Amino acid sequence: MVKLKFYYDFLSQPSRTLYIFMKKTEIPFEPKPLNLRQGQHLTEEIESLNPFKKVPFIEDKGTVLIESVAILRYLCRTYNVADHWYPLDIKKQALVDQYLEWQHNNTRAHCTEYFRHKALWPLKTGQAANVEKVEKLEKKMIENLNLLENIWLKDKPFLCGDEITISDLVAACEVEQPRIAGFDPLVDRPKLTKWITRVQSNFSPFYKEAHHIVVQTADEYQYYASELSKKNS
User: Fold this and answer.
1) All CATH 3.40.30.10 domain ranges in the chain, comma separated
2) Per residue in 48-78, pLDDT tens?
3) What residue spans in the chain does CATH classification 1.20.1050.10 cover?
4) Which residues are in the GST C-terminal domain (predicted)?
5) Which fold has domain 4-81?
6) Which CATH class is domain 90-232?
7) Long-range CB contacts (within 8 A, 24+) of 204-208
8) What is the chain's mean pLDDT, rounded?
9) Burial class (CB in 10 A: 0-12, 13-18, 19+), 104
């Protein structure tokens, strides 16, 4: 049987999401890890499959899909997974879709931009981050994290109701990303803290496995920041 091919890098939040989900739901796949920081996604072979040369993407039964939310929906409808992940009930499904559409310009955008400007670009270029830019991005990210705390999780255990869905995994992987840059998204957010603990527990041990790179890269960034501070003192 030909397995689904999964191209990914754990530094990518959507890559972690798909890996964890497929492991949890026992969807068989052939792992195709790519190191983004080494440019392994920029080859002609990858471009022939995905002209955008980004991860994650999958190749399944002759079909290539390159957007993580579309891939999640495809997996839920193509493979035998529990209904609660992406319900067939149109109203419940709409609640999941509502968060998935909202998060692109909110949770994902703000957590990603903060991580990129404060940690990724400095690690990649060796240049210090633009402090003013980072402060503005941090403010927007905090506003967004507070929306998760005060609106999305106001009166329910998961983002879309009483049961966990793919939206919770998508959100959790995004919320973890600022940790790399030394920012703890859970401080003074008790609902967010309890929620992410539920998500982590539900996806154990795969959640921790996929997020080892967050800890590893955070340590790398802290060392870089410490050395830069010594250099400038």
Assistant:
1) 4-81
2) 999 999 999 999 999 999 999 999 999 999 9
3) 90-232
4) 89-225
5) Glutaredoxin (3.40.30)
6) mainly alpha
7) 206/19, 206/20, 206/23, 206/24, 207/20, 207/172
8) 95
9) exposed
